[in-house]
Amino acid sequence: NAGVTQTPKFQVLKTGQSMTLQCAQDMNHEYMSWYRQDPGMGLRLIHYSVGAGITDQGEVPNGYNVSRSTTEDFPLRLLSAAPSQTSVYFCASAYTLPGEQFFGPGTRLTVL
Amino acid sequence: GQSLEQPSEVTAVEGAIVQINCTYQTSGFYGLSWYQQHDGGAPTFLSYNALDGLEETGRFSSFLSRSDSYGYLLLQELQMKDSASYFCAVRDMLTGGGNKLTFGTGTQLKVEL
Description:
Number of strands of chain B: 11
Largest sheet of chain A: 7 strands, mixed
Number of helices of chain B: 0
Radius of gyration of chain B: 14 Å
Order of helices and strands of chain B: EEEEEEEEEEE
Oligomer: heterodimer
Number of helices of chain A: 0
Order of helices and strands of chain A: EEEEEEEEEEE
Largest interface: A-B, 26 and 26 residues
Strand content of chain B: over 45%
Structural class of chain B: mainly beta
Largest sheet of chain B: 6 strands, mixed
Helix content of chain B: under 10%
Shape of chain B: globular
């Protein structure tokens, strides 16, 4: 099993550009989530999904959209990138909470 | 909402025992998790406590006291590879139907020779 995969690993955007961060898991997990991590801070939940077709907002959802058309994929879209979105983004999946969440390797995003 | 407090940094010597504390405030507590993250890496799950008491997994143990809104992670026989950040996280049943985890800001553990 590949576990949780994320692409790209690194990305540099200009202010105002849009892009999609990809996340996929091959463990048949129902629960998937996106976090951002800024220096010296913990992980903050952006959006999560408890199954295909179901998404909900986390702690810091503004400026981000998600969709969950399949169990495997949970892409995160930045609508109009801003410097404040410079961060490391982690995708995670779990069979269900409170079970173990498996994290992807992260995407390091810089917005200029 | 929820809030968690952890020390920002702890230093210990190889072979020693270290305790990383976590206090939380939440309106509908439903469990405390611990994650480890090495520099540049992804978080990895260590433990989960839903009930009071101590859970042991090898060199790592996790403790929870729901009445005190407090938990800790205990690392024994410290090794250099234990140098990492450790995050506690709470699951709150009153927010998002229990489908949200709120993480603390993390404790950076430095293990010295």
